[in-house]
Give the backbone structure.
Amino acid sequence: MELVRAATYDRRIPTAAERVWENVRDWEHLPWLHRSSFSSIALLDEGAWGWAARIGLQPGEDGARGGEIVVELRIDATASRYVARTVEGALQGAEVWTEVRERSPSATDVAVEFLVPQTDPAVVSQMGAGYLALYRQLWDEDESMMVRRAAELGALGSTPPQQERLRLGTPEALRQRDAPVVTWRGRPFRIREHEGTWIAHAARCPHLFGPLDRAPIEDGCVVCPWHGYRFDLRTGQAAEGRPYRLPSAPRVRTGEDGALWLEPAGSRRLTRCAPGDAGRRR
Ligand code: FES
Ligand SMILES: [Fe+2]
């Protein structure tokens, strides 16, 4: 099948190439980080060569998308590039080539080329425009993940102060704040009201350091927006038997002054996490 170039896309990512390659190998984030584009993913194969997966597409506003495709992503580490081939479904045969070049520890250039099966030039140009719109959004979302992860990795390793108490402020003042996060013994914790009780829970996911500060709580579990892992607020344990656990959270107590305080009394155990549905995007 002859392929023609439908579009190209160049972008500088403000992080090291290591973060980009990590993201390329991470098939699991597609229906979570890119939830507006993908609805599900089922891994078919994975290895040093890359991965292959069946991916559900979100329907577009015009109903034009939707359905499923099978994508095979192959990495050529020597040439510092990878190709994502659609081997089944819409745009079968199309290939997206991406070259990755690190310019500095905080700058990596990616050069993307979209190749589609040869057809009417007007259709090719339309496909190119569609790919560009999609990939701009995907790279925006990926960049936010890579930059946040790089910052979290950079913050590791400092010696945590041994705080004994931390004044959080009055409940009224806390309610005025948008998703309040405090640092307790060197780690970020989100302070929130849950089922009428003030609690603290880790604001950094133990999987790949995803942001839990705005993560929803569902059935007693905090749900990470990057890969959908669910953590039981009662035990801290990841659902579905995954080998991750939230750091033990300090307790939120009301002081004599009417303000809320953090104290090192272990996490305040709340509800039990309901049987998981984290696999629903699989
Ligand atoms: S970073 Fe992967 S589930 Fe949180
Ligand atoms: Fe991505």
About this structure: Residues 205, 207-208, 210, 224, 226-227, 229 surround FE2/S2 (inorganic) cluster (ligand 1) (CB under 6 Å).
